[in-house]
Protein 1
Amino acid sequence: MGRFSEFFSRRKKFEPEGHVVSGRLAEFRLMKLTRAVAGNALVLEGIRLPDPEEGGRREIDMVIATKNEILFVEQKHWSGRFEVFEDGEFLQHRNKGGEHSHATVAHRIARKARLLEEIHRERYPDNEMSFHVLVAMTHPRLEWPEKIPKIP
């Protein structure tokens, strides 16, 4: 491969896969809905924060802050049927067939929330905010399991 063709091959843009596009649209719709009903709450989206232990950055889909509490919102636009196990694993059974393990999703969400809470507590040690995590499952064709165990 010549230098020019290699250069142009690196610049080629690829369209995102369908599930990525639908996930982004779902996040956008959730953000619009949240802002419409949030009142005086501060609503932030796509909060990126450093991860000193694992390196790189982590992103929280949405943060809603009031005078007394902060709500971390992680949005998942999964379809199909899923199972939830006590260790926090989510096993997705896709409508078009096949399974996908989201083995560490609960732990990653909890970790991102802890990181942001640590940053807040370090900067504002006298602040008595309470912190909560919400996972918004937004796909209309998601089948819920009969029982969901308490997730660590």
Note: The first strand starts at residue 42 and ends at 50.
Protein 2
Amino acid sequence: VRMLEIGTGTGCVAACVAAALRGQRRGGDPSEPGPAPIDVRVVATALVPAALELARANLEAHRVADAVERRAGDLYAPLRPQERESFHVLASNPPYVRDDEWGEMAPNVRDHEPRSALAGGPAGMDVLAPLVARAPEWLAPGGTLLCEIGHRQRDAALAAARSNPGLREPEVRKDFEGYWRLLVARRAG
């Protein structure tokens, strides 16, 4: 499985996916056999080099650093031309907080996360829109796009995915609290 994570931050998504697919289990009955390991390769990008260093430490702590290649740059800039149409999964938790929502954010998030990791512009789509627009270039046919979105962006995120002829079956799913949070679409073809 080849996965691309745009905006990896601390590397938690890349680490969890790599560990799960490799069969490294947490919890459950240790006497039960785990799933068969799957060869997984992740390319994890981040705009901030310090985030990539934090991701490195976390990936090493979870024994998956060898499965995750970290690259610095904005959105798709760190990718290589030969990687086009090669990823089975494209995951991202991009900055999506709308300007008018900044004051509503919980202080434990707003005061401890870099603004660049959260702020998504007036409609919260400054990063999400170009991410969705170019996703089909990098996804393998049938590959899946998964993006966390703000719960008030459901319509805008769906519109962005539906207007993209390279994507099919776009939907937004609810999180465990009942908020519209996950944009899911598949690459056409």
Note: DSSP finds five helices and seven strands in the chain.
Protein 3
Amino acid sequence: ARFWHKVLFDLGHLSTAEPFQRLINQGMILGEDGRKMSKRWGNVIDPIDVVELYGADAFRCYEMFMGPLEQMKPWSMKGVEGVSRFLARVWRLIMEENQAGEWVLSGGVQEVDPQKSELKILHATIKKVTGDIETLSFNTAISQMMILVNAFTNAPAKPVSALRTLLLLLNPFAPHLTSELWQTLAEKFPGVGGDITGQRWPGHDERLLIEDEIEIVLQVNGKLRDKITVALDATDAALEAAWSLVKSWTAED
């Protein structure tokens, strides 16, 4: 591409000497033994075999999760298994098995507003994934989405709006899984609608990322008694009231 671009430039058909503004050299993927993949060493990984075992999404995500794009990295089937388990958690976040052994939409998926803590991690994930895609830092983008999934896994109610955003963020990494889950949500919740590839990329609200609370550790005689969360601008009177409450518990003990 670069050669023919320069030929056309020399002939006066193009206005720029270079076809690309930025060059990224991808690091080599080694065999599981740490050596260059080669038939000689018998350490070649066939993508078709991996796809048959774990699916195309797991294979695709693992390649991006292995590490920084430009670094040399050894292949690991255990790593593929780990990414496959992550995608399974995403699936179970939205789906559940009924008594007939069929996968159906989970009863925990509801049209409710996300809690304050959930909104914070959701918008932090939007910001992180968006920025990481821009810099080709795919591994850290996936790591952040893992944190988001863990935050919602044990929540009694899974807000549809938050799940919708998660699927949009994950779609470039796992298009098959997210497309199917998006369609399942669309059948139940009309507000989801349309094909996932036709949706606008989500934006984050910087105001939701402002730290307005702090966790304070309370100790009595060197022993941990409790941890409380207070406003970042809490007054001395509020802190003293919390301390007095802890001392009253100690007296009762």
Note: DSSP finds nine helices and eight strands in the chain.
